Amino acid sequence: MREYSAADDDRPTPGLVTGAVSIGTAPLPFLAVYTLLFLGHGLIHPVHPPDITTTQGGEVIAGCVTGVLFIALLVAIIWFVNGSRRWPFAVLQVAVAAAGCYFLIDGTKGGPAVSVLLILAAVVALVLAFAPAAWRHVERRAPRLVHVGYGKVGLGEHDDTVTGYSTAR
Fold this sequence. Notes:
mainly alpha; 0% strand
């Protein structure tokens, strides 16, 4: 992990990183609501049958898990915006996409609209999180294949006119 310096506060965040983070926040409201819902149904107002488990205690555990995931995703987003770590953000976006696929396949887990939204948001966030500008933001050298692939779709080397951040060196 790299050391923090006061110069990090003045370093602009590339537009592609801002886009990845903005789209990557899509699961946060759902996680917050489900945390409160599961904890409420497990501790305050039990429902019969329970929402996703077979017991009231299971609902409490589900609420704790979604609460931990909410905090983990929030911390991962902050780390990525600050340029210190990208991998927790990427791992959690892959998990969001996988959960969305599971919920889409299993029709008993709700309607397909939210699942499709989460899958699309996670995929777009991952695509933007691995653009050349994002590699530079976390102070890593992008593999040549990344430059070639992203260059073909217009996300390769460029100057970000909004922040003045240049990916070309």
